[in-house]
Write a structure and sequence with these properties.
This protein has about 500 residues and is an all-alpha fold. Helices cover about 75% and strands about 0% of the residues. It has helices at about 15-45, 50-80, 85-95, 100, 105-115, 120-140, 145-180, 185-215, 225-235, 250-265, 270-285, 290-295, 305-330, 335-360, 360-365, 370-400, 405-435, 445-455, 485-490. Helix 8 runs antiparallel to helix 13. About 45% of the residues are buried.
Amino acid sequence: METLETEKPLLKPVSDHSVDMTRHRGRNGVVSILLQPFQWLQMLSSKLNPSFVVGVVLVYGLNQGFSGSVFKVVTDYYWKDVQQVEPSVVQLYMGLYYIPWVMRPVWGLFTDVFPIRGYKRKPYFVVAGVLGLVSAVAVVVFGKLPAALALSCLLGVSAAMAIAEVVIDACIATNSISIRSLAPDIQSLCMVCSSAGALVGYATSGVFVHWLGPQGALGVLALPPATIIILGIFIYEKRSSTFLIQKNKKDADGLGVAVKGMYKTIKYPQVWKPSLYMFISLALNISTHEGYFYWYTDPKAGPAFSQEFVGIIYAIGALASMFGVLIYHKKLKSYSFRNTLFFAQLLYALSGTLDLVFIKRWNILLGIPDSFFVVTEESFSRIISKIRWIPMVVLSTRLCPLGIEGTFFAFLMCIDSFGQLASKWSGGFVLHAFGVSRHEFGNLWLVILLRNVLRFATLCFVFLVPDSDHLDDLVPSDVFPKNQPDDADDDIKLLLL
C-alpha cells in the first residue's frame, strides 16, 4: 500500500520558467501593439506606391496639419493685434481664405486634363510650393502691409495648400476606387497625418507668436511649401508617352469629356443628395470662432488665456482628433454612412452646449476651472468633429467616377468649401447683427445658442445620405460615352500609381 507521501500532488507550483514565459508574452503583446502603426504603414506601402504614402504624409501632415494650424492661430493674432480688425470683419476675411478651396475643381481640371511635359501631378506640386513660399516670405519681409495686400498674401498661402491637396486628393480618389477595401484606411492615414501635424503646429504656434510676434511667426509658413517643391521633384509619376504629340484640340476634347462626365454624374440622385447634405451640414453650422477667440483672450470680459495656452488648447484638441480617427477606424468604418452621420451630428450638436456653459461661466458655479473646462470641451468637440467628417470624405471618394476622379473629387470638396465659406460669412453677419465687437461680448451667448439650434436642425436632412457603406457601388459605370476611344479616356486617368 502506497503512502500519502508517494502520491503526486494535484496542483503543481508555478515554476520560474512559467513566470518568465508569461512576462515574455506580456512584453511581446506590448511590442506588438507598438508595432501596429508601422505594420499598417508597411501594408499600405506594399499595396500602394510608397511615394504616394510619403506624399500623403507631407501634404496632409506638414502642409495641411502643421501649416494649417499655425496659419489659424497666427493669423488670428495678426488680425487682432497687428491689423486691429473687428471679429465680424475677420470672419469675412476667413471666408475669403476658402476661395482657393472653392476653386478646387479648376485645379482638378488642370491636373487631370492639362499635363505639363507629360506629367499631371509633379509640376503642380512645384507650382503650389513656389506660390506658398513666395507668399509667406512676402508678408514677413515687407513689414506691416495694408490690410488688402496682407490678405492677398495670406490668400496665396491658402491657395498653395489647396492646390497641393487637390493633387494628392486625385491620387487618393483613384486608389480608393481601385482598391475600395482600403478607402477607409487611406482616409484614416490622411486624418492621422493631419491631426499629428496639427498637434505639433498648435503646440508651437503660441510660442512662435510670443517670441516672434504675430507677423514674424507667419514666416514659419514658408517651410511646408518648400517641402512640397521637393515632393514635386522627387515623387514618382509615370510620364505619358504621347505628350510630345499632344495638341490643343486633344486637350479641349479631354476637357469636354471631363465636364460632360461631371454633369452626368452630379445628376444621379445617389450623388447630388449626399452632396447637398454635406453642404447643408457645413453651412448651417455658423462659425462663431472669432467672437469666441476675442472673448477668451480678453483680459476683462473673458478668462484672458495667454498665447501659449491658446496653442495648448488647440494642440490637445488635435490630439483628441487622432482619437476620433482611431475610433472611426476601429469601430465605425463598417457602419452605414447614414447611421454614422446621424449619431455623429447629434453628438456634435450636444457638444455645442458646452460652449454656452463656458460663455455664461456656469463652469465656475460648478467649481470647474476655466482651463480644465475649455480643454475638455475642445477635446470632446474635436473627437466628434473628426468622426463626423471622415465618413463624408469617404463617401465623397465613392461618388467619383473613374477617369475624372481628381476633378470630381475636387468638385465635391468645392461644395464643402462653399459650405464652410457660408459658415464663416453667416457667422460674421450674425456676430455683427448681435453687436459682438472687440470689447463687447454681451450677446455672444445668443450667437452660440443660435448656432446650436441650427446644428440640431441639420439632423432633419440626414435622410439625403445613402444607407450604404464604403463597399457599395454608388455611381453607375456608364458615366462616359460608350463610343469614347480608349486612348482619350486614358489621357484623363490618373498616372500617379
